[in-house]
Amino acid sequence: QGRALTLLLAKNVPHVKVDGMDPTQKERRDELFKISNIRANYPQFFLEDESGTVIYVGNWEYIEGLNESSSLPEETLQTHPEIMTLERVF
Fold it and tell me: At 71, phi and psi to the nearest 5?
């Protein structure tokens, strides 16, 4: 989880941390578990749009993969817009 936070900070990705162990955040945690259909697997990443709709993006392995894709040559990324990167998702 620490690596995830470090990555988000390094990439200037706005984020809100929900502590799954904090009893005061239990309601929000359970809402997010319903969206992802995954319980007790941390960290999980979500996007919330301006209307308040929340979607599940993925787990740490997925985010790490997005970050690795970000280092591909720009020409490759332009030729293959289907390749998702951290910048394209967030």
Answer: -90, 0
